[in-house]
Amino acid sequence: MRRIALALVLFCSMRYGTAQNTPLISGGVGFLTSTNGGNTTYLPIIEPLFAAPIGNHFFVESRAALVEVFFPNGNGYGHTHSIGLTYLQGAYLASPHITVVGGSFLIPFGTYNERLSPVWINNLQDGPLISSLGTMSTGTGLGGMMRGSAISRRKYSIDYAAYFSALSQNEQFNARRSSGGRVNLYLPESRLEIGFSYNRLLQGTQENFYGTHVWWQPKNTALRLRSEFARGGHAQGYWIEADYRLQRFGGPDSWIGRIEPVFRMQQTFRLDTSASDGLPLVNTQRADFGLNYNLPHNTRILTSYSRQFSSTGNTNIWETGIVYRFLFPAWKGK
């Protein structure tokens, strides 16, 4: 479930009784491995998410990441760890069309940062190569945001998000001074979403970022198509991802219906030699082939093989992992 969808469901449910005001604890636990050039890295991770409605109009949400990394260093394995909040935000439902958000929030540029980055949602371990474009490298802003549904009709709807972030060098809430937003058009009959994003970096050498995305889930199928393009002052790129769950063969709970093949194609293109955007230093192509298995009780096995091509050398990447999604109330509601 998308993080934003969870928030909207909670907001809508708050008016139906005190039981729905119970805070929720959600998130994912995973154990991931990545083998690149014969070297294997192990990554246990816990990503808890806390969501708490306060009355009929306020909502507090936060996500943290607890990560351990074991990596080969020539003398065996080295070890690093990190613990921190991914974001911490408060929201006020001002009207059916406006929600005001303040605090540390995920920057609304493209789709990956807000919707697909949690470990329990992403189909592949690695994010797209262009995921840092438009998200100011940190992925989060510190300031204010307005978002909501601008127009909602039977045949189409338009939603928006606009934000401003201040500069912060705090270790926990690191952010760059920037502003921007995103507009999405959704066609429910076609199950098609088209979005446009714009962000501007307002510190140092100012820079504009542009993006567009297309998501499509054909009716009466388990096929999902997602794509995104982003361009900055120094580089641009795209990714296209398709996944299909084989539920037509015996249903989603059959042994074959739990299988989910995934394919993602992506490319990045350098516009100059500046390395400030987090993208590869040379033009790069990458194809990811995944085969996931959806076990009962919100558990998934993730496997993938990736082949990366660039002028600096070609690379094979093998990745495996197991992820468990949890969701429960913080305490028993009345």
Automatic annotation (TrEMBL):
Endpoints of the signal sequence: 1-19
Keywords for this protein: Signal
Presence of keyword Signal: yes
Name of this protein: Outer membrane beta-barrel porin/alpha-amylase
Lineage: Bacteria, Pseudomonadati, Acidobacteriota, Terriglobia, Terriglobales
